[in-house]
Amino acid sequence: MPDPAYKRVLLKLSGQALEPSCGVGIDFRTIDLFCDEIAEAHALGVELGLVVGGGNIYRGAEGVAQGPDRPTGDYMGMLATVINALALQAMLENKGVTTRVMTAIEMRGVAEPYIRRRALRHLEKGRVVIFGAGTGNPFFTTDTAAALRANEVGAEILFKATKVDGVYDADPVKNPSATLYRELSYTEALSRKLRVMDATAISLCRENKLPILVFNLTKPGSILKALQGEPIGTLVKGD
């Protein structure tokens, strides 16, 4: 197998990618498949950080109309990401992959508090680090948390794993004739309001020249292909 093109990678998983087809919650069979690929990537010697969303359990921004104010809803969403992080940890540990869950909101009974230098040490020791609770602040998405952590730990690239093949000029589910972009600049992604990541996350990556690769995680082998630099998905880089 070819050597990986990257030494240290941050992988962003949406919470919705973990939900069962019947509705909200966690589909452990799906997580098991994702973790198989993560374990294979880890076996190649790649240093891996993960950020997972919580949309399969609760989405703070969408909950506002139902009662909670936005900050409260966002904190609830952060707790949902920790549940998903613990699920990923359990499945990876079952496969013999040593992991650490680190959270932006302290909950020492279940995870370590996020400390950058400690996270770096875990990565250097070959542990998969799962970052939970977003940034720890309301009004910021887990996309922004992924961009922030990727830059903090010195990742060479940010992988955004989705349910579609990359970034399109329209919703490919609603418009079968939508065009897939193979490469975009940060500025194009922002000006065209394409659904790569939120604007704060893209701007943070642009400022620090961190490439973003958007690809379809549901296709077997996608993570390994991305790690080996194969031309899959949509690469966002450059001005």
Describe the structure.
This protein has 239 residues and is of the alpha/beta class. The chain has one domain: 3-Layer(aba) Sandwich (Carbamate kinase). It contains eight helices and eleven strands. The strands form two sheets. It has a nine-stranded mixed β-sheet with strand order 4-3-5-2-1-6-10-11-9, sandwiched between helices. The chain has a two-stranded antiparallel ribbon with strand order 7-8. The chain is globular and about 45 Å long. The mean pLDDT is 92.
Please render the helix and strand layout as text.
Blueprint: E1 8-13, H1 28-43, E2 47-52, H2 60-63, H3 70-94, E3 99-103, E4 112-113, H4 116-124, E5 128-132, H5 142-152, E6 157-162, E7 167-168, E8 180-181, E9 183-184, H6 186-191, H7 199-207, E10 212-216, H8 222-227, E11 234-236
Parallel strand pairs: 1-2, 1-6, 2-5, 3-4, 3-5, 6-10, 9-11
Antiparallel strand pairs: 7-8, 10-11
Helix pairs in contact: 1-3, 5-7
